[in-house]
Amino acid sequence: MGVYTDLREKLISDYATLSPQMQKAARHILDHPNDVALRSMRALARAANVPPSTVTRLMAAIGVDTWQQFRDSYQNRLLDLPASYAHRARALQNSEADIHRDAHLLQSIAQAEIANIGQAFAPEMCERMKDACEHIARARQVFVVGRGAAYPAAYQFAYAYRLFNENGVLVDGHAGAFGDQLRGIGPRDVLIAVGARPYIRDTVRAVAFARKQHCPVIAVCDSDVAPIAVDAVAKLVVSDSSPSFFQSFTTSVSVMQALVALLVARGGQKVLQRIAVAEEQLAAFDTYHEEAAPTRNSRS
Amino acid sequence: MGVYTDLREKLISDYATLSPQMQKAARHILDHPNDVALRSMRALARAANVPPSTVTRLMAAIGVDTWQQFRDSYQNRLLDLPASYAHRARALQNSEADIHRDAHLLQSIAQAEIANIGQAFAPEMCERMKDACEHIARARQVFVVGRGAAYPAAYQFAYAYRLFNENGVLVDGHAGAFGDQLRGIGPRDVLIAVGARPYIRDTVRAVAFARKQHCPVIAVCDSDVAPIAVDAVAKLVVSDSSPSFFQSFTTSVSVMQALVALLVARGGQKVLQRIAVAEEQLAAFDTYHEEAAPTRNSRS
DNA sequence: ACTTTAATGAAACATTTGTTTCGATAACTG
DNA sequence: CAGTTATCGAAACAAATGTTTCATTAAAGT
């Protein structure tokens, strides 16, 4: 069981000295250790976008004679892990509390997240998501509102959406301009409102205002009868149950992301091109960090 | 096609009707399920003292088309993907594309989310989260930085953290004050940086600056060798793989939330009281919508 | 500028893989 | 008993795997 850690550590410590292509391979291995254990070397190379020879060379570079050796150590790691996620959590529940309380809490969180995702992507919800997309695709302007803990979900959608459409508005109420941003909202627009109990007044007001202007509302919330879901054309109900003290909006983020994915899939090639343009612009603005060129002369 | 529900059950129930040699193979499979997932069919046959053809025949006998299918289900069990999801997704893949393409996409997203959560909350990562909490709990000030798509994760943490501690700073670079917000950062503070490839320059710069000031860094990122993870005291690696076009930061949000939960658990009663106070304040500011009193005649 | 070196991907290579074929053997049936 | 069937394993097969080779290219050194 020590073999695995050694190889992984070696991969990390030697990373800087590796050639660019080997870095690509090493990185994929570090990020997808299970691929090493379960898939073939060639399959891994394909996934990493690297010729098979590079992987072989990488083995030599980190002092491993053969891919089989490397793979074995990763398989052992898999075998050391308790078999099942559910089993893991259950086992922890039965163990002494003090040392494992943290671990138990984390496992509970993970379990809750998975359960929430499962509910949010149940068949009926998927149908509702598709309906929601129809409305969004037809809309003149797409407003998104989410305050407090729900803000990340709203932001996430607005950020991604703006990469391929210019008619998205994140109603974030900066500088108190909460009302301003909704000015002009009407029947041909759509408002996506994110919130869960306790509902934040601003969000409820925004929904009420939109409804009064006959603007269709898509509600991402915790109940079919949530105040922001009344008369909504699509109610995307996400469970926010969490063992932690706070309500969990992570599932809302997932749902918002799924909406974006649906829109992109619907938009086809044209949307992809727009995204490419947006990315170019970001690169031109020097937004992204250029990865360090592999230090050639810094080898040990 | 057909009975994917549980191949192991099928093996057990049909065991009596199988030919002696097939029973030998079946028995070995039942006794050594991991061999199915990790080793080759021929290797398994050797271990079971059976010619390869027997295994192939066994597959046909239990109604499985190909060894690959069989092996996949055992690999999934190892990876602990909830079976229902894997199967649902696979079933949809085989269905007519046009109507179900959206459904398939959504199922893939759900599946990916669950897999990502599973990885992020693997035992080793849980250890790292606990380490990270130690640093946060000791810190004089807690800085959080995340730009672009990673912003929701950073925001989520800052928002929740501020409910029970006043030493949290969300480095969001509003009004270009990106540098200002990091002024005074030092060895007794901690910087939590969230980001994935492509890394946004601001985030990388923030990390570099913090490191120069000898401030410990907690990196929530997509790789052990991410630029923002260099020399980090805790590297929380979250996979951002997603079938959608965009990288998925939902797992990062989950991890950030888990950090908060750990901190709250660690803080005990005192923290809970502070949260109660914070909520009272919010209520006093009229932040929350008062739910309509259940109208008497609107019984469910 | 030229030489030397390192890096890279395509192709070739020998194995190994999962599957199929086919003759041999055993078991059962009439 | 003969004849049919079911079972089995060796061999053949195409497809894949992991590795090595080699020519080409890009970078460093002189």
Automatic annotation (TrEMBL), chains A, B:
<dbReference type="InterPro" id="IPR036388">
    <property type="entry name" value="WH-like_DNA-bd_sf"/>
</dbReference>
<dbReference type="InterPro" id="IPR047640">
    <property type="entry name" value="RpiR-like"/>
</dbReference>
<dbReference type="InterPro" id="IPR000281">
    <property type="entry name" value="HTH_RpiR"/>
</dbReference>
<keyword id="KW-0238">DNA-binding</keyword>
<dbReference type="GO" id="GO:0097367">
    <property type="term" value="F:carbohydrate derivative binding"/>
</dbReference>
<dbReference type="InterPro" id="IPR001347">
    <property type="entry name" value="SIS_dom"/>
</dbReference>
<dbReference type="Pfam" id="PF01380">
    <property type="entry name" value="SIS"/>
</dbReference>
<dbReference type="InterPro" id="IPR009057">
    <property type="entry name" value="Homeodomain-like_sf"/>
</dbReference>
<feature type="domain" description="HTH rpiR-type">
    <location>
        <begin position="5"/>
        <end position="81"/>
    </location>
</feature>
<feature type="domain" description="SIS">
    <location>
        <begin position="132"/>
        <end position="274"/>
    </location>
</feature>
<dbReference type="GO" id="GO:0003700">
    <property type="term" value="F:DNA-binding transcription factor activity"/>
</dbReference>
<keyword id="KW-0804">Transcription</keyword>
<keyword id="KW-0805">Transcription regulation</keyword>
<dbReference type="InterPro" id="IPR035472">
    <property type="entry name" value="RpiR-like_SIS"/>
</dbReference>
<dbReference type="GO" id="GO:0003677">
    <property type="term" value="F:DNA binding"/>
</dbReference>
<protein>
    <submittedName>
        <fullName>Transcriptional regulator</fullName>
    </submittedName>
</protein>
<dbReference type="GO" id="GO:1901135">
    <property type="term" value="P:carbohydrate derivative metabolic process"/>
</dbReference>
<dbReference type="InterPro" id="IPR046348">
    <property type="entry name" value="SIS_dom_sf"/>
</dbReference>
